[in-house]
């Protein structure tokens, strides 16, 4: 649903504020607002100075070329190699023997790779790819679990100039097939399987199904992870360990142009066809390394853990490329947060002395639902900074995270960005920014964001509307692979000269941004346009609620009525009395206009494998429509369970 003349209404008020703790400010990389002032005075000069932190074989001629907007180019004429920046340049320093990747498998096996180890493995893998006929410009699809071979393969592709397309290991054969065919990949790297909640995900089997309809693929390399028997097609399929045993160490990095493609990453579109988001080498690396270093206040002794899957952009930018470019120690975990117990994340924090934890609001709400006894079992005193990513975090989840995980001593960097943006665009700097639970706060230095009405005019502070980015930024997507018209239409056609994010937002009287969700998640109640995020936050504010999803359902008088799907904390039963209590709670927190008409209690909510709630499917259920595509759901059976519960409650 598009927002027309009337701006998105903003009703939820959050009064709590947390200035940076003095003990944190004392040692912070950024302690004052001078970076913001520098970027405001000359944005291009600011980004040029940040670009000096990475290694260039040839310096750029021009920082930004906007002559063919919206096909912007950054660091024009510059030559670099992303793999070299993430590995080789650390080898001449003490970091050569520093842990680059600390990996833990779901069954409990673990592995540590130093930067020297990573050099050995990546250069061998690069030589293996060359031996298999992969040349600069060839696309390689990587379909692996969260094992070290995944970043090794990515960095090897970057080393020889072969753009990679990582497909999340939870995707089906059909989703894999579509992504391979769209980018015309020449080679696929997969595994026999991966571990998930004690079960094996049959990656090689899925790959074989997909490849029955993928004529571009010539070779397949298979990592042995689970040891199960798999089909190996002679002449096409090769074992990773056998090829790596023969591959020599040492492979010179290709000198890549700053605008050469680094990777394609597919993100779901409103149509059935996934969008292949293209990111290039120079601007992307400058963007992710700068934001990683400054937002997470990275020090040489940090043990940094981003809990995302590398199959999503968060993993590309903030597990692999940003941290390794900064010479950081990055933690990878293969499995589920509740296997074999619900304290697995906290056990990992305790075991490795994790200092920075970056996770999703979806995970935090699951932890809330499970109860505080799980983190209480573990020593979390090593943590000094927390972060959130993936969707807006409701204030109560923020407070829970702050209290029970951070011990009320760790600042929280709530970050807003997208697959398309490549890097974080709105976020606190933890040594500078006063935090407000639920707000991503302010744009990163060198980023110009605004909230506008349907005419593209900025709305007054305290108002809501469309979230836009007013000027280009280094890590921005360059196009949609093979479809430049869709790129222009989707992101640049709504507002002249501005990138439309697809999100609704408000900015408060202090200029802080509050993301209220996708524009098509707005509900129109009697002419009032309400963001689902605010109503969901009010519901989760109630002590009985773990998670909530709100949708608009057709109503003959009001236009739309508010229906809420609610998951309760463990041990609490959904009763008619509780439903009425929750409706009253929302009315008290936000106002009578936001009072839900219906509350439906459900054990789970339909989520994608990256943790985003699929409200579209809930709308289909509420409107009695045929269910839309469920292939990207983590558990498609959840939808039929909700449908049965909904119909029985309605009856």
Describe what you observe in this structure.
By secondary structure, this protein is an alpha/beta fold. The radius of gyration is 24 Å and the shape is globular. The strands form 9 sheets. The protein has a 7-stranded mixed beta sheet with strand order 5-4-17-16-18-19-20, sandwiched between helices. It has a 5-stranded parallel beta sheet with strand order 7-6-8-11-12, sandwiched between helices. It has a 4-stranded antiparallel beta sheet with strand order 21-22-24-25. The protein is built from 20 helices and 30 strands. Helix 7 (173-183) packs across helix 8 (203-211), helix 13 crosses helix 15 and helix 19 runs parallel beside helix 20 (637-650). The chain folds into 2 domains: 22-505, Rossmann fold; 542-650, GMP Synthetase, Chain A, domain 3 (2-Layer Sandwich). The chain is 31% helix and 22% strand.
- Average pLDDT reading: 93
Distance between the termini: 29 Å
Structural class: alpha/beta
Number of helices: 20
Number of strands: 30
What would you say the CATH architecture of the largest domain is?
Answer: 3-Layer(aba) Sandwich
Rg, Å, rounded: 24 Å
CATH class placement of the largest domain: Alpha Beta
Shape: globular
Fraction of residues in helices? Answer: 25-40%
Fill in the CATH topology of the largest domain: Rossmann fold
Uncertain runs are: 1-5
Which strands sit side by side, in order, in the main sheet? 5-4-17-16-18-19-20
Domain count: the total is 2
Largest sheet features: 7 strands, mixed
- Which homologous superfamily in CATH is the superfamily of the largest domain? ANL, N-terminal domain
Strand content: 15-25%
């Amino acid at each position: 649903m598009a927002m027309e003349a009337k701006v998105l209404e903003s009703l939820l008020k959050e009064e709590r504020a947390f200035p940076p703790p003095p003990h944190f400010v004392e040692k912070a990389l950024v302690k004052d607002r001078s970076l913001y002032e520098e970027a405001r005075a000359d944005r291009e000069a600011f980004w040029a100075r940040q670009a000096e932190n990475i290694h260039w074989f040839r310096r750029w001629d021009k920082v930004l070329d906007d002559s063919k907007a919206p096909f912007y180019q950054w660091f024009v004429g510059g030559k670099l190699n992303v793999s070299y920046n993430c590995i080789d340049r650390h080898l001449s320093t003490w970091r050569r023997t520093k842990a680059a990747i600390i990996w833990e498998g779901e069954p409990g096996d673990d592995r540590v790779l130093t930067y020297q180890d990573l050099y050995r493995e990546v250069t061998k893998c690069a030589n293996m790819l060359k031996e298999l006929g992969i040349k600069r410009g060839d696309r390689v699809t990587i379909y692996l679990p969260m094992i070290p071979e995944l970043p090794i393969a990515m960095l090897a592709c970057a080393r020889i100039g072969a753009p990679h397309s990582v497909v999340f290991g939870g995707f089906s054969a059909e989703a894999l097939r579509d992504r391979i065919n769209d980018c015309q990949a020449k080679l696929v790297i997969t595994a026999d399987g991966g571990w998930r909640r004690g079960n094996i995900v049959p990656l090689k089997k899925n790959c074989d199904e997909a490849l029955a309809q993928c004529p571009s693929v010539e070779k397949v390399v298979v990592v042995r992870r689970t040891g199960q028997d798999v089909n190996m097609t002679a002449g096409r399929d090769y074992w990773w360990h056998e090829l790596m045993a023969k591959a020599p160490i040492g492979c010179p990095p290709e000198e890549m142009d700053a605008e050469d493609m680094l990777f394609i990453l597919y993100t779901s579109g409103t149509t059935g066809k996934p969008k292949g988001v293209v990111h290039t080498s120079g601007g992307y690396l400058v963007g992710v390394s700068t934001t990683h270093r400054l937002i997470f206040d990275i020090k040489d002794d940090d043990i940094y853990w981003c809990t995302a899957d590398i199959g999503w952009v968060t993993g590309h930018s903030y597990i692999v490329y940003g941290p390794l470019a900064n010479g950081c120690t990055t933690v990878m975990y293969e499995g589920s947060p509740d296997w074999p117990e619900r304290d697995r994340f906290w056990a990992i924090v305790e075991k490795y002395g994790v200092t920075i934890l970056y996770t999703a609001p979806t995970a935090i709400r699951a932890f809330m639902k499970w109860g505080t006894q799980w983190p209480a079992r573990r020593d979390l005193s090593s943590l000094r900074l927390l972060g959130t990513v993936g969707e807006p975090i409701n204030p109560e989840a923020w407070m829970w995270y702050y209290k029970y995980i951070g011990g009320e001593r760790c600042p929280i960097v709530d970050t807003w960005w997208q697959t398309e943006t490549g890097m974080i665009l709105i976020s606190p700097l933890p040594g500078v920014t006063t935090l407000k639970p639920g707000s991503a706060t302010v744009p990163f230095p060198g980023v110009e964001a605004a909230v506008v009405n349907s005419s593209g005019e900025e709305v007054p502070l305290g108002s809501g509307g469309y979230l836009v980015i007013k000027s280009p930024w280094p890590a921005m997507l360059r196009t949609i692979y093979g479809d430049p018209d869709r790129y222009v239409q989707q992101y640049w056609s709504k507002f002249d000269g501005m990138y439309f994010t697809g999100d609704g937002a408000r900015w408060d009287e202090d200029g802080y941004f509050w993301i209220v969700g996708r524009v098509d998640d707005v509900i129109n109640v009697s002419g009032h346009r309400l963001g689902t995020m605010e109503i969901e936050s009010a519901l989760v504010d109630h002590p009985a609620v773990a998670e909530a999803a709100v949708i608009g359902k057709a109503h003959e008088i009001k236009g739309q009525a508010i229906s809420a799907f609610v998951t309760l904390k463990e041990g609490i039963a959904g009763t008619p009395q509780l439903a009425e209590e929750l409706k009253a709670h929302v009315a008290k927190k936000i106002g009578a206009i936001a009072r839900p008409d219906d509350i439906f209690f459900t054990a789970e909510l339909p989520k994608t494998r990256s943790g985003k709630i699929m409200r579209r499917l809930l709308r289909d259920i509420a409107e009695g429509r045929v269910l839309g595509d469920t292939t990207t759901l983590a558990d498609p059976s959840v939808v039929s369970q909700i449908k049965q519960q909904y119909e029985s409650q309605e009856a």
